[in-house]
Design goal:
The structure holds two protein chains of two kinds. By secondary structure, chain A is mainly beta. Chain A is about 0% helix and about 55% strand. Chain B is an all-beta fold. Chain B has strands spanning about 5, 10-15, 20-25, 30-35, 45-50, 55, 65-70, 75-80, 85-95, 105, 110. In chain B, the strands form two sheets. In chain B, strands 2, 4, 5, 6, 9, 10 and 11 form a seven-stranded mixed β-sheet that branches. A four-stranded antiparallel β-sheet of chain B has the order 1-3-8-7, with no helix packed on it. Chain B is globular, with a radius of gyration of 13 Å. Classes of the chains: A mainly beta, B mainly beta.
Chain lengths: ~110, ~110
């Protein structure tokens, strides 16, 4: 059974810092990995999708990497801003779509102005 | 392009009652998935529908059931509500297969008293 762990559970940093969020998964046989952002009480916003054959994806100040063999992904946020404050969730697709996504519990990020 | 919408936003029900939640998929998407997110947890996969058929299910009892309609909108029905069913229910739509991102709606907050 696939399990996803996110470290740290919470993080508070001053504005402007670069930061790294970590995600690990127990079964390396994945189809893809997706990073999401969730604001309090709201739905999920897709940030980046990395296919199993890819090593990284970039969107603006965000860069996500994937090391499938070691079961790890990182989300790098450059020049953090207060508007980046949210919970960041990592999710893996282990079943080709029909088994749904397996999520971690998320990293609660606070960017101090 | 219209995103994923869900109704109602909030709902309060009594233990033992039945509830129906609704989701309208993003235009052009033929697959819809439902997730349950308890407070402080990552979303848990309930089931997925593709072309009006359930084609994947997570570890949820049969009292959780669904429908997908020809216009790709969907319903989640929960019978015999229990206190532990209190959660944020998220709907996600996508194209079929693991190559595509899942796009989430804003969720329905269900409280069972």
């Amino acid at each position: 059974k696939q399990e996803v762990t996110q470290i740290p559970a919470a993080l508070s940093v001053p504005e402007g810092e670069n930061l790294v969020l970590n995600c690990s998964f127990t079964d390396s046989a994945i189809y893809n990995l997706q990073w999401f952002r969730q604001d309090p009480g709201k739905g999920l916003t897709s940030l980046l999708l990395i296919q199993s054959s890819q090593r990284e994806q970039t969107s603006g100040r965000l860069n996500a990497s994937l090391d499938k063999s070691s079961g790890r992904s990182t989300l790098y946020i450059a020049a953090s801003q207060p508007g980046d404050s949210a919970t960041y969730l990592c999710a893996v697709d282990s079943g080709g779509g029909a088994d749904g996504l397996t999520f971690g519990k998320g990293t609660h990020l606070i960017i101090q102005p | 392009e219209t995103g994923v919408t869900q109704s109602p936003t909030h709902l309060i029900k009594t233990r033992g009652q039945q509830v129906t939640l609704r989701c309208s998929s993003q235009s052009g998407h033929n697959t819809v998935s439902w997730y349950q997110q308890a407070l402080g947890q990552g979303p848990q996969f309930i089931f997925q529908y593709y072309r009006e058929e359930e084609n994947g299910r997570g570890n949820f009892p049969p009292r959780f059931s669904g429908l997908q309609f020809p216009n790709y909108s969907s319903e989640l029905n929960v019978n015999a509500l229990e206190l532990d069913d209190s959660a944020l229910y998220l709907c996600a739509s996508s194209l079929s297969g693991s190559l595509y991102e899942q796009y989430f709606g804003p969720g329905t907050r269900l409280t069972v008293t």
